[in-house]
Task: inverse folding
């Protein structure tokens, strides 16, 4: 049996969805999981992880918990101490950064942002995209340890009812870099990589101010994030953190709504693995319609408010 | 201070990618290349840091001998010298082997500060910077959008899913650069002329075996054919119906 140590991120004492998906991916591939957590409330977040597929949880403690290098070094120690076969994390900012460091400590290659994980015989095989989605590669590892990160919104969360054995491990390495402050963004603002629904706007919105319509449609869905095309980010209308595509973020929400986005190849690469794609564009020949499941040809300024109203009506019924 | 900017040759972001018939790799005949988008930001930050603190910038790449074209661009934009670790199999070099080979070269160059892109836009691993720093035992900050640096330490800001973190780091360090950190300069005629006289050295990379084993690489599966549900705001009820009853996402 393959055993993987899985980094579980949490906020307010609850494990984050992306981390639970990583546990689910490992379980679905037939692996046993040991969760590793760090930071305030980690012990609390660890308590319920048995229900999501972790047999054990290790909470890292010590003054260097705000240092990625010290934490990664402790995580690699946990992999060895537990006799595990590898390390996994969700491909969030911290998950990706720590996984790369842990992989180096284990002298192993890392497969980032995987969209598939299967066990074939004794070895794990991953599916991941190259060129932001223009190519799909299937790979196996000849490394001493198997290390990967999982794309958000791709894997199912494991649902069970088990207890979890929680232990502690001290962070002993000296910090070379440490987080000294965090300027939190609004609690309601979801990141485009994490959100189950993404509403993106492009140059068809004509002015930065008109993104109020995109924000309102996202608010109507409730659990949605605002995304943007490269053109509007380069124009300074939206921050880079919202950019979807090859020089931004690759996303795979359940529902992706593209408004006034023509669909440059770099943008399509970044969102084509979304569950359902809706395109709203004035130009019936826009390439975005080639990847969309449903399209409306029309003026965003008429369609988007009507759609927001209709979505609100549906949500009110539910 | 010796500063390094690591750059990678990647297919242009607008390139139409084709595959070998046996799914063993990309069809590279006629494939156009560029310096990876984020590596341009890394080079600019290296040059800005040299302008502020003094020292020398080396542009470092792992690639084919013909990759010197990208290094000449770096020299034209302010790098003082360039080193290419020549490897004709560069495209299949995995992130660990790349990190180990760069770490060895960085050690040889006696650098204190290394800039890399947050991610290369071909393999999308976002791993080489933190891996390389771990092999070197250095500090590393990933995905930097703002920074200040002195001779021995610096401060950098990174954007996470939750907000903006401020990170203090000690030197030597590897900084991976995100969009927003700076605006890369264009090479002027003077820079292009000067670049021709700057040293560009070819070296053999350190030995490092690959561990990633590629089974297949191919085009993503085509999405099922979609449909236009209608025109203008009148089409909204049909869209809502499709999202609720067909796609079941609402």
Result:
């Amino acid at each position: 049996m393959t055993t993987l140590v899985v980094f579980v991120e949490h906020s307010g004492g609850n494990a984050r969805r992306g981390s639970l998906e990583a546990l689910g991916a490992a379980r679905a591939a037939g692996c046993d999981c040991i969760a590793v957590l760090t930071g305030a409330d980690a012990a609390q977040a660890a308590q319920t992880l048995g229900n999501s597929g972790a047999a054990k949880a290790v909470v890292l403690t010590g003054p260097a918990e705000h240092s990625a290098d010290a934490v990664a070094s402790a995580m690699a120690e946990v992999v060895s101490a537990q006799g595990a076969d590898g390390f996994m994390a969700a491909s969030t900012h911290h998950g990706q950064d720590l996984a790369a460091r842990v992989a180096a400590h284990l002298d192993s290659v890392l497969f980032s942002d995987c969209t598939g994980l299967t066990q074939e015989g004794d070895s794990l095989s991953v599916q991941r995209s190259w060129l932001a989605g223009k190519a799909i590669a299937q790979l196996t590892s000849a490394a001493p340890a198997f290390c990967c990160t999982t794309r958000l919104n791709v894997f199912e969360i494991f649902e069970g009812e088990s207890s979890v054995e929680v232990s502690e491990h001290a962070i002993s390495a000296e910090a070379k870099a440490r987080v000294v402050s965090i300027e939190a963004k609004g609690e309601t603002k979801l990141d485009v990589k994490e959100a189950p629904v993404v509403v993106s706007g492009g140059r068809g919105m004509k002015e930065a101010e008109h993104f109020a319509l995109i924000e309102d449609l996202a608010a109507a869905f409730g659990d949605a994030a605002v995304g943007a095309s490269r053109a509007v980010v380069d124009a300074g209308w939206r921050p880079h953190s919202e950019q979807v595509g090859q020089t931004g973020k690759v996303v795979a929400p359940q529902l992706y709504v593209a408004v006034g986005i023509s669909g440059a190849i770099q943008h399509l690469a970044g969102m084509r693995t979304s569950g359902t794609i809706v395109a709203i564009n004035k130009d019936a020949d826009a390439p975005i319609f080639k990847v969309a499941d449903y399209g409306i040809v029309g003026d965003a300024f008429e369609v988007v408010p009507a759609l927001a109203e209709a979505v609100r009506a549906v949500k009110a019924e539910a | 201070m010796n500063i390094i900017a690591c750059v990678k040759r990647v297919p242009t972001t607008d390139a139409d990618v084709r595959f070998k018939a046996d799914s063993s790799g990309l069809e590279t005949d006629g494939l156009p290349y560029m310096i990876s988008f984020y590596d341009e930001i890394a080079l600019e930050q290296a040059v800005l840091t040299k302008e502020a603190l003094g020292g020398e910038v080396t542009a470092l790449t792992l690639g084919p001998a013909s990759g010197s074209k990208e290094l000449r661009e770096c020299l034209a934009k302010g790098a003082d010298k360039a080193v290419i670790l020549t490897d004709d199999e560069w495209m299949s070099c995995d992130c660990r082997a790349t990190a180990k080979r760069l770490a060895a070269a960085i050690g040889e160059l006696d650098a204190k500060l290394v800039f890399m892109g947050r991610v290369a836009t071909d393999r999308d691993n976002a791993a080489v910077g933190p891996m390389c720093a771990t092999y070197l035992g250095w500090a590393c900050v990933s995905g930097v959008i703002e920074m200040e640096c002195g001779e021995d330490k610096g401060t950098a800001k990174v954007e996470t899913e939750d907000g903006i973190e401020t990170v203090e780091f000690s030197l030597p360090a590897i900084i991976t650069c995100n969009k927003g950190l700076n605006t890369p300069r264009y090479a002027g005629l003077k820079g292009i002329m000067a670049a021709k006289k700057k040293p560009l050295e070819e070296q053999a990379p350190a030995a490092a075996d690959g561990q990633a084993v590629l089974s297949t690489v191919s085009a993503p599966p085509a999405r099922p054919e979609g449909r236009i549900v209608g025109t203008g705001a009148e089409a909204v009820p049909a869209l809502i119906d499709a999202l609720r009853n067909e796609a079941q996402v609402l």
Notes: The first helix of chain A runs from residue 17 to 28. Chain A is about 30% helix and 30% strand. The two ends of chain A are 44 Å apart (CA to CA).
